[in-house]
Design brief:
With 154 residues, the chain is mainly alpha-helical. The protein has a domain at 37-131. The protein has nine helices and no strands. Helix 4 (47-62) packs across helix 5 and helix 5 (68-84) packs across helix 6 (86-92). The termini are far apart. 18% of the residues are buried.
Length: 154
Amino acid sequence: MKVQTTLPVGRHTPARARRVRRKTPDWWPGFRASLRPGLERDTQLMPWLIADTVCGEVSRFLGVEIPARYSDWLDAKAERCYANHRHFRKLMRGRGNAPRDWLYAFMRHWLAALLDLERPDLYQCLPEDFNLGRRLPAGRPPLIRRKGFVPTTA
């Protein structure tokens, strides 16, 4: 009895098995060249966009304006970690949506740490899960009444 060792070539075999090259669109090389070197070019993730999104999420939740330098700092931190840490690079080069989700989690964690250093009053209003990289819940934060606290809601 003979065992077939090669993959059948047909309609349902993957392109790799059929040894067919996929044609790249004409716009792809120009787009790839326009990306910043490092994290953005290697993974097509846009850390500046994710940093703006995370800062906007916190700003809406707390009802205060978050300085633009925070998103710039998060973007630079992501680039620095990608350049210097092998494990972070491995996470960012994963498959599917996992790298994007990891980057969101890291940026939420970093923003929580930055708020804890510079604005502990705002950090106290964030849920504890945010420091672990989880999304903020829908709705407003609880009103904290303590001496010296300025409420963030009208």
